[in-house]
Design goal:
The protein is an all-alpha fold. Helix content is 79%, strand content 0%. The protein has five helices and no strands. Helix 2 packs across helix 3, helix 3 packs antiparallel against helix 4 (83-99) and helix 3 packs parallel to helix 5 (104-114). It starts with a helix and ends in a 7-residue tail after the last helix. The relative contact order is 0.10.
């Protein structure tokens, strides 16, 4: 484990402008390369969720929370392979967003549109 002085030195070096000048162009290129796939996924989620949310009058801030939930759910559906992981991640996301005050019935509708890997039971 690092002491405070070592940790600050590591942080300083990580954020040092000479190092960043070498690292940032690579990171920017990676971000540009990933943009088309990320943009397509985001458009898909918005297209699936927008008709659901248009049925309910709500403030924009709340609407954005539902989109964030749908994005996180869609990401987990793409990244995770095993059904047990998908179910566990869905439970975590649901409890997190329900605790933030989102309506469970609207979340159910979003789940029906976004979840592609359904269990047989």
């Amino acid at each position: 484990m690092y002491n405070e002085k070592e940790a600050l030195n590591r942080y300083y070096w990580k954020m040092h402008h000479v190092r960043l000048r070498k690292v940032l162009p690579e990171k920017i290129k990676e971000a540009h390369d990933r943009f088309p796939d990320a943009s397509q996924a985001s458009e898909y989620v918005i297209g699936q969720v927008k008709p659901i949310l248009e049925k309910y009058p709500m403030a924009l801030e709340i609407r954005l929370c539902y989109y964030a939930y749908a994005q996180a759910l869609y990401k987990s559906q793409r990244k995770l392979t095993y059904m047990v992981d998908l179910i566990r991640e869905h439970q975590i996301l649901r409890s997190r967003w329900e605790n933030r005050g989102l309506d469970p019935s609207i979340l159910d509708e979003i789940d029906d549109r976004i979840i592609v890997h359904k269990s047989l039971s």
